[in-house]
Amino acid sequence: MNPLGDLGNHLEALLEDVRGWVEARLSLFALETEDFVNQLIRILILIFVIGVFLFFCLITLALGLGMWLGHAFWGFLAVTALLLLAGLLFGIIRPTFMKIKPEEAFWNKIPGVTFLLPTKQPPSPSLPVASETPKSLPKPAIKK
Hints:
Layout: H1 3-69, H2 72-93
């Protein structure tokens, strides 16, 4: 019996297991990333189609109002005023879907993407903590 030969065989088996584990993890990451990208593309296409539809609806509304008011300019002005008013109301009211914390944003669901999260740095030891009372400053020497 050669103990070094058994050790070599065990190390080779361990190395094969580690290679298999790494390959499995890479395959899993590729599948998860592919699924996420496919879902993202579907959402972007849907947003684009809805955006084009809304754009044409707004143009139609502006032209219709312009025809009713006597000139296309007035229709576009009225639609612009409505959009500005809606934007102002959204800014003031701020719906709950707009109050998303950075940790809950969709890009943080991507595996491996952590650089977009705000970093939490410990307070610097050279600065006094707010609860500490400041030490008194030395009195300046008076020259006579």
